[in-house]
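It would be a great kindness if you could assist me with a short task in structural biology. The matter concerns a single protein, recorded as an amino acid sequence and a row of backbone structure tokens. The record follows directly beneath this note:
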Amino acid sequence: MSFDFITFMKFLEALDIEIEAKFLNAQQTSELPVYSIDGHKVSVYFRNEIRQHNIPAILREKKELPILVVANYLTPKAKEMLREYKFNYLDSYGNAYLNLSPLKVYLENNNASPYVKPSSKIFTQAGGQLIFQFLQDPQLVNETQRYLADNSMISLGSVSKIIQGLSEYGYLVSQDGKDKYQLLEYEELLDRWIPLVNEKILPKYYLGTFSFSVGMKDEWKKKYLRPQIFWSGEPAAALLTNNFFPEKFSMFTTFESNKDIMQTLKLVPNQNGNIKLYKPFWLQTNQMDNVANYLNDINVVPPVLVYAELIYSGEPRNLEIAQKIFNEHIKPKL
């Protein structure tokens, strides 16, 4: 759906409340379109769907004017976070939060359903594992399909179908009509990958929930420094920034049996523990990089996965550190 004044009015009409709206096409103070609602200027941020991991993108917008988020679908968690950050919102189902003194509206109909893009056929578990390769390094789009299949741990046939799908929906474009590709819309693709990795991939590679044994928690940076372990989420943020204290731990390990985990890693199975263990869903091919990470005390997964876990948590302190990781470890490589 394209966004224009007629579309905007449909969202307002769904509220069944008398509200005067105008489009202001002059003296805009933001890159976002500016509208007037009952005399209040707002910058309108429109998307088909807003989930919790989309909130950081909204936080990055200029804020000379109050922001009004307009979406066909807003998840309950996203609405909660928008209210927390004092963003106004409307959805196509008549749910609304407007805090524009003296205009105060809060409607919750609880009748919304997710918006599904037709391109969702490429956002499968296998698709997510391949997309992970491209998000780590956009230049990998020109690697052989065999290389991509091996490193993504998916079938060769899946690679071909997913690349075709990414091309059809504008994420890959052929350069000069040759068999060379360029990755486009990186941030949008990352945005869509975040729920995919957290909801479809990580559960498939989940090993269990554990607790530290006595004396291990305070020394986790050193005592777990070994090539078979890769930190993600909050502990990885601590290692990458040196300015973060993890409360929940996410670890990827090549140890799979509980016996190895308990004896070698000194972790105790505990369904209420604060350590979640996963098997890697990618092939560790560059052993020299792994050794370098090990020797430099930063045995972490690729930053894009750290970012995805932090953003998906929805916790304000994690969102802040995730943005720092994006700016310092992801954006410079684009």
User: Anything to note?
Assistant: The first strand starts at residue 21 and ends at 24.
